Amino acid sequence: MIIGVPSEVKDDEYRVAITPAGVQELVDAGHQVLIERGAGIGSSIRDEDFVATGATIVNDVDDLWATADLVLKVKEPIASEYPRLGARKDQILFTYLHLAASLPCTEALVAAGNTAIAYETVRLANGSLPLLTPMSEVAGRMAPLMGAHHLMRAGGGMGSLVCGVPGVAAANVVVLGAGVAGMAAATLAVGMQANVHIFDRNLERLREVDHHFRGQVETVASTKLAVAEQVQHADIVIGAVLVVGAKAPKLVTDEMVATMRPGSVLVDISVDQGGCFESTRPTTHSDPVFKVHNSLFYCVANMPGAVPHTSTHALVNATLPYTLEIARHGWQNAVRADSALAQGVNVSGGQITYGPVAEAHNLNYRPLAELLD
Questions:
Q1: Model confidence, pTM
Q2: Residues annotated as catalytic (active site), given as ranges
Q3: Could you tell me which residues are beta bridge partners of residue 287?
Q4: Domain span at residue 272?
Q5: Number of domains present in the structure of the chain
Q6: Domain check: are 170 and 144 in the same one?
Q7: Do 342 and 328 have their domain in common?
């Protein structure tokens, strides 16, 4: 199979979808790997590093899209890439898609008629998300750091030090969601000596969190009233809510934000899925925050892109086994053999095959099993 890896073109996105080690695994398995010139520079990977493990460097990205059987990316295609989606019949796109938050991208993929497999909806039998987990860990660990930076006066906030000092209280950090990202955020916030409250609707999960942190965080059953009460006294609120493949629920209203202290900070990790704050809108690393009432919203849609060297290697560690199976067997046989990978197929043959995406946009849905029969 011919595998193509273009440069990412989304604003402030420096990750790349393969590493030299990944190239070697694919080439040793008999596949050809085409990489757009300079695609790895943002992740501190040189073209020579890719060539040394068997990749071919391509100058013309349109040729890459037109030639590749399988295109590996990090982020969903943006408008400038939509014309390339139909360049090759029966092409496979393997990337983060977050289609429930983007009708234009969904429509472009449906119109292209090829198969789009989303990293974020590949789901194991135990409910875990193996290809979303590494980036959730990165974004979760970044969230308290970004919150702490913007809480300082130089970052636009109230001028507080998260950890406090003797005689001055530490910051109050509220984490909404006790999944992978929420736990990563809480872990770092605890390490920064903040006062941490973590919310979730799953009581059994909260018991696990309580045991994990041994009383260092306060666990709270998530209700509208409880969220409103804690948000009012929070210095940093971290939104880490995930409904797999669907839009995130809006847990923090503008009315709640109006009760917060001036200069407080809200970080929405869920922004890729539409966000869990009422006024969330995607921002970029070069222009990361905006004001709602007297608080700062940090809603960067590709947080791990700020640490691309770490993020690229963590991502490829997770995606490479699935990439090898798709390349070895073709996507149909690969998903027949792996029910987790099958849940990653969001669009195929002009049909939406992932229910939450169709529901989010009120579009027709066709079960993947019907296409595979």
A1: 0.87
A2: 98, 272
A3: 284
A4: 133-306
A5: 2
A6: yes
A7: yes
